[in-house]
Amino acid sequence: MDYRRLGTSDLEVSEISLGSWLTYSGGVSQEQAKACVEAAFEEGINFIDTANVYGRGAAEALLGEVLAGRDRSSYVLATKVYFPMSDTDKGLSAEQIHKQIDASLQRLQTDYVDLYQCHRFDRETPLEETMGALTEVVGEGKARYIGFSEWPVEEVERSLAIPGVQRWVSSQPQYSMLVRGPEAELIPLCEREGISQIVWSPLAQGVLAGRYHPGQAPPADSRAASESMGGFIGGLMTEPILEAVERLRDVAAAAGLTMAQLALAWVLRQRNVASAIVGASRPEQVRENASASGITLDEQTLAGIDAALGDVVYR
């Protein structure tokens, strides 16, 4: 496993990180989750990402149980705040940030998180209030660093202009061979400001791993066929996308890689990407994903990817 510095922080994070969005918020059992976390540590993955809203606290609570007893300095732990935890608990007000960090720490059974992220931008709360509260959380030692996810570029720029507040070290956008929007403005801004990307859905929820085929029903054990985990994959399961991904099989084979390795190496070719977050319901998935670390794609392979995907890419 190779490691990269997270922005201007002193955190060294594994190029592949373990996420918990759909899997550990109710999609898999605690035994499966524990096996995946153990496999992650065995493969050198040291970065675990979650959020308070995943299962309304269920993912954090499960990780708290699974990580209990491990040396806290042996892993980098990230969580998030913004989405509703109840009818009244939501957003990025100072009250909510302080309330939710305390609740997250209790569920995670830890005194601090390494990275506290704003899950989306809150247009109902003054930006100065949000940044001030995040700065207080860091000052209290409850979080070491802060990050944001899917913020509009103009709001990131506005936040960077506020004096005397904590600086971002990370951005968490959706980024993959199919979804390349961050390349236009977000990544250039973050490169200038010393902010790293932690990308989510680099495998497009399994589509880029080659799990699905055009004209065929999803496998029974796949995310797309799961009632608890398949609710967000519909837009990626169109025939044009599946046909384009099918063409990637020859590109991967020519490079001597699995489909998952090809997709993860593609996002990691971007040096502003510190880590690619992957979900896993089985230890073997963790191991295959971890094996993508350190792979370099040559120009011929990169050109083959672009030719295969054609106009289904979102830019």
3D architecture notes:
The longest helix has 17 residues, at 239-255. This protein has a single domain, classed as NADP-dependent oxidoreductase domain (TIM Barrel, Alpha-Beta Barrel). 47% of the residues are buried. It has 315 residues and is an alpha/beta fold. Helix 3 (58-67) links the parallel strand 4 (47-49) and strand 5 (76-81). Residues 222-231 have low confidence and may be disordered. It has 11 helices and 10 strands. The strands form 2 sheets. The protein has an 8-stranded parallel β-sheet, with helices on one face.
Low-confidence stretches: 222-231
CATH T-level fold name = TIM Barrel
Biggest pleated sheet: 8 strands, parallel
Strand-residue proportion? 5-15%
Q: Considering the protein shown, what is the CATH homologous superfamily?
A: NADP-dependent oxidoreductase domain
Label the structural class. Answer: alpha/beta
User: Could you tell me the mean pLDDT?
Assistant: 92
SSE order, one letter for each helix or strand: EEEHHEHEHEHEHEHEHHEHH
CATH class annotation: Alpha Beta
What's the number of domains?
A: 1
Oligomer: single chain
Q: Give the % helix.
A: 25-40%
Shape: globular
Number of H/I helices: 11
Query: Gap between N and C termini, in Å?
Result: 30 Å
Beta-strand segment tally: 10
Rg from C-alpha positions?
19 Å
CATH architecture: Alpha-Beta Barrel
Largest sheet: spatial strand order: 3-10-9-8-7-6-5-4
